[in-house]
Write a structure and sequence with these properties.
Blueprint: H1 8-21, E1 22-24, E2 30-34, E3 41-46, H2 49-61, E4 68-69
Parallel strand pairs: 1-4
Antiparallel strand pairs: 1-2, 2-3
């Protein structure tokens, strides 16, 4: 795998986007969030094992919350 070099600003932008993007609903379904506020749905459904992959990436990026759980 090729190593990427990011500026601090690029890294911060990626952290913000990732921390809001991948969510888990109350049934345990993992997906990409679509919508805002109370009109949220899971636009793209992901496999359960992706949760571990995203949480690992979040730890490496310093995103402490991990995958968000939403009430949809």
């Amino acid at each position: 795998m090729k190593e990427l070099k990011l500026t601090e600003d690029e890294l911060e932008a990626i952290k913000i986007a990732l921390s809001e993007l991948v969510v888990q609903d109350r049934t345990g379904q993992l997906g990409i969030m679509h919508g805002a506020n109370r009109f949220v749905s899971l636009h793209i459904c992901l496999k359960k094992q992706h949760r571990t992959i995203f949480n690992s990436a979040y730890r490496k990026l310093g995103i402490s919350n991990g995958v968000k759980v939403v009430n949809v």
